[in-house]
Amino acid sequence: MTEARTPGHGPLDGVRVVELAGIGPGPFAAMLLADLGADVVRVDRPGGTALGIDPALDVTNRNKRSVIVDLKAPDGPARVLDLAGRADVLIEGYRPGVAERLGVGPGDCHARNPRLVYGRMTGWGQQGPLADRAGHDIAYIALTGTLGMIGAPDGPPAVPANLLGDYAGGSLYLVVGVLAALHHARATGTGQVVDAAIVDGAAHLSTMIHGMLAAGAWQDRRGANLLDGGCPYYGTYETADGGHMAVGALEPRFYAEFLSLLGLDDQAGAHTDVTRWPELRARVTARFRTRTRDEWTARFDGSDACVAPVLSLREAPHHPHLAARSTFTDHAGITQPAPAPRFSATPTTVRTGPARPGADTDDVARDWDVPGLTAPAPSHSSKPSNPQRKAPS
Question: Which of 35, 166, 200, 228 is catalytic?
Fold first, then answer.
């Protein structure tokens, strides 16, 4: 592992990461590594990415530094290879073959640094009939069966933002793969390529459900199962003021406490009697509509009924439990989730705000001993291009 010269915090302090700029799951994975203390240098393109928000507000670029390199320029690939030669990890999210055509693919990078962990973030993966196709989160989770699990039985599948595919099935699996490969590289001196495809990760997330399906404990349709809203004591209910409460009273004693606080003790036998579930759902629905969300929150406060209010993004940071844990933090005027998970010996923090494109070129050139970053670029007539597909995001 190389030694970073910049101060850091967290268990990955000393790990150097090169992120070839993109949108969606790749930057989020790099943010997670940066949150954990890695020195992440984001290689931005002239003209920026297609995300379309002020870079000063793009918190997925927090705790990073940025340089600008035009990979279409004659010396562009060499500048990236200089960084890769001093890095532990490189992350890219281009379509298959693009990095190779640009001269910064795994072969080129490993020729300069055999220990490098080369992380590839795509939706469809590096091989397969759809590998070269554009796509987005919703298409990836659609093919894996995970999207079809979510939603009411009498309506279309519900769209879970882009959390399930991009970030759960993509970013988190890329980070797990990168850290595993980094462990191997430190033990053996040999780097490798990590192929993190959202379709693979999203499918992997449903492992338990596939086991239940094989055992006959899960029906292959929406809204008919214990954990997909088909069960009346695991779901959401509207309150008198248009808010919602989330119920997860699965175990018998939690279910009994739920009924007691709801005033429906006569429904105790419906816990295991699915023929009574329609009646139970109707009764629970009617009861929740008699009070506001805040009134029900107070009613269930301090209980083990496994009931919670459904909060909005702006409400969540002010919940007493999340506030007490500092689950959210304010940095430079932006409220955002704090780094996770937590470490007893190597605590993490939001050290810097979003990296501004190119703002750290001089510092990175010095700290990483890559003087070529600051050398004048030769003139050329080609226009900057965006080699990354619009997906995955």
Answer: 166
Is 9 annotated as catalytic? no
What does residue 326 show for φ and ψ, rounded to 5 degrees? Answer: 55, 45
Mapping DSSP to helix (H, G, I), strand (E, B) and coil, where does residue 80 land? Answer: helix
Which strands make up the sheet holding 244-248, listed edge to edge? 234-238, 244-248, 307-309
pLDDT tens per residue, range 263-309: 999 999 999 999 999 999 999 999 999 999 999 999 999 999 999 99
Give the model confidence (pLDDT) of 16-43 as tens digits: 999 999 999 999 999 999 999 999 999 9
What's this model's pTM, rounded to 2 decimal places? 0.92
Measured in whole angstroms, how far is the alpha carbon of residue 73 from the centre of its chain? 32
SS3 247: strand
Q: End-to-end distance of the chain based on CA atoms, in angstroms?
A: 31
Question: What CA–CA distance (Å, rounded) separates 80 from 20?
Answer: 9
Rounded Cα distance between 81 and 107, Å, is 11
Quote the CA–CA distance of 41 and 33 in Å, as a whole number: 11
- Name beta bridge partners: 149: none
Q: Biggest alpha carbon distance in the chain?
A: 81
The span from the CA of 8 to the CA of 313, in Å, is 29
Catalytic residue among 35, 82, 136, 271: 136
42: β partners: 19, 66
* Catalytic residue flag (residue 244): no
What token pair was written down for 23?
Answer: 């949108």
Q: 3 to each of 15, 88, 269, 322, how far by Cα in Å? A: 7, 10, 63, 36
- The tokens describing 308, both together, are 């919670």
What digits encode the pLDDT tens for the residues 162-193? 999 999 999 999 999 999 999 999 999 999 99
Question: Which of 389, 221, 247 has the alpha carbon at shortest distance from 308?
Answer: 247
